Amino acid sequence: MKAVTFDRHGGVEVLQYRDDLPVPTISAREVLVRIKAAAMNYNDLWARQGLPGMDFIFPHVSGTDAAGVVEAVGPEVTGVKPGDEVLVHGAFSCGECLECIRGEPMFCPKFAIWGFQTGPNNGSEAEFGKVPARNVLPKPENVTWEGAAAIGSVLVTAWRMLVVRARLRPGDFVLVWGATGGLGTMAIQICRLLGAKSIAVVGSDAKCELAAGLGADYAINRTRQRINREVMRITERRGVDIVFEHTGADTWENSTYCLKWGGTIVTCGATTGFIAPLDIRFLWNKQQNYLGSHFGTTAELADALRFVRSGQIRPVVGEVLPLADIAAGHRLLEQGGVFGKIVLVP
Ligand code: NDP
Fold this sequence. Notes:
Blueprint: E1 3-5, E2 16-18, E3 30-39, H1 42-49, E4 65-73, E5 85-88, E6 91-92, H2 98-101, E7 112-113, E8 128-132, E9 136-138, H3 145-165, E10 173-176, H4 182-193, E11 197-202, H5 205-214, E12 218-221, H6 227-234, E13 240-245, H7 249-258, E14 259-267, H8 280-285, E15 289-292, H9 298-309, E16 317-322, H10 326-335, E17 341-345
Helix pairs in contact: 3-4, 3-9, 6-7
Bound molecules: NADPH dihydro-nicotinamide-adenine-dinucleotide phosphate.
């Protein structure tokens, strides 16, 4: 099969586009998906570059998001059959341990992100991928293959952050970092869906317009505006109810300044660095909440996909590339200029 693989960490030169990899062999409860489109994520960069303290399985095929057609199913699979059009929820767990039964598969000892912690040679940036049968969901008919591939990880992550962890309520003010990126485009649409007021933070005036087009109530250009001054003006000096964080070290201090007393910072990432200061006095005195969030469950993705089917949340695809041009995708992701997601077509 065709796939992009690498057997050591490094720059884009380690990526090899090949057409001679074996098709993955499925086990009893897995399905083989013929991939029509795959979306890129930051994990692809980290897998390629390497992360301290994390061992990757080589040869490595990256890719956590895919949409495609079921090619084959294992003998114990029910409810999914060859020919089904599906999208993959790229967070795998055993489905049997206490944490899985409790509905917390992210705490499963076998939790693994597809194309990041799996392998060898099993991720979505290929012609075929193998995944547990419980990780495929029907593809919404009203979106393209590219759209279906683009929406899984960012929708479920933003949904869990805002709806499940931070308990977003109508009328809440939400500060959304990276509002025209993969996660940010979902956060803006979830806020609009649930009647909350989003304040988009972006890196250019053009992106302010894109954020407004998605439904952001306010947009701040971080390169020329003082974020906390704008936030205090918009919220009449209260601060925001929720900060949607994933940018990390560079933005953390501003996130804490913008947060109201009793407010919540919810974070799932640290694009600009992992270590940030915390003034513990604020935590108790202002009774603020600092929440971590990671991916989401298949059930949460299914909940959120109802609003994709209804047209209230739409995938945002900024760039479609042939799989063979993956190095260009890595460069675009590093530069951060894409509106929404980069999608690869094998
Ligand atoms: P994108 O590349 O699509 O978007 C990232 C955005 O971050 C850019 O649009 C950019 O916006 C903004 N940004 C970059 N540098 C800065 C900076 N110094 N200050 C402020 N904003 C900055 O990435 P995703 O939205 O897909 O993912 C974002 C992060 O979340 C990644 O670190 C990723 O690994 C993590 N993540 C975690 C998940 C989890 O489950 N734990 C799941 C999905 C993602 P602009 O320049 O316009 O301000």
